[in-house]
Amino acid sequence: MAGDDYYDSLIGSAYSAYMERPWLSRTVGRAVWGGDTRSYYESMGAIGEVPAGGTVVDCPCGAGPALRAAPVDGKIRYLAIDLSPSMLRRARRRASERGLSGIEFVEADAKDLPIESGTVDLFVSYWGLHCYEDPAATLTEAARVLKPGGRLVGAALVSGRDHLRQRLLIRSDMGGFGTVGSGEEVERWLRETGFDPRLSSSGPMLFFDAAAD
Q: Residue 57 CB: number of other CB atoms within 10 A?
């Protein structure tokens, strides 16, 4: 995964700024990536469906855009996890601005989460899968911490031979990318790690909603 210096750079700051603003994200998504980010923000509604006393893991949490869906009454346990200290700093500021208390911020590797097995109701994974060197390993870890029947909701950029933007802009080990899979490969990784996914896409953006075994 890209080092913290990447996320602390001007590019990382710009990324954080537009992902925290849905209207700007949609504009950049169409202009740069050729996809529509609306499904990303709509999928955050899953956070509000977690019952009182349940646990949500947001990994990687980035600058905290998904915190917009976190309840302010603290009825659920919310763990915001990222390997980047700069992103965690931004997420803490985001939580403070929204008046959220009780959010647990954790610096950790997505392949080795400090969470007991079978304890999480919802795992949200937004725009991180394409940054990891071993995406399948991070999905295995998500499956480990989820309860039986728990839910994985996320989004990722995928590679593809049919779209010029994907060929030019989305390549493994370039910029902030790690191992970038195609849509078919991401589906295979999900199924091989014990998930039953529902998938949709817009340009190079793949959205997934998957139940754990």
A: 27
Closest CA to 48 of 116, 132, 145, 122: 122
The answer to whether the beta carbons of residues 59 and 125 sit under 8 Å apart is yes
- E strands, the chain, are 55-58, 77-82, 104-107, 120-126, 146-157, 195-202, 205-212
pLDDT tens-digit profile of 21-70?
888 888 888 888 888 999 999 999 999 999 999 999 999 999 999 999 99
CA distance 44 to 84: 22
Nearest to 109 by CA among 63, 78, 87, 141: 141
Q: What is the pLDDT of residues 159-177, one digit of tens each?
A: 876 666 666 777 776 667 8
**HSE-up of 67 (CA within 13 Å, CB side)?**
30
Q: Which residues contact 7 (CB under 8 A, 6 or more apart)?
A: 15, 84, 86, 87, 176
Q: What is the dihedral of CA 131, 24, 198, 53, to 10 degrees?
A: 90
Q: Quote the tokens at residue 183.
A: 């849509």
Q: Could you give the CA distance from residue 29 to residue 196 in angstroms, rounded to a whole number?
A: 27
pTM for the whole thing?
0.90
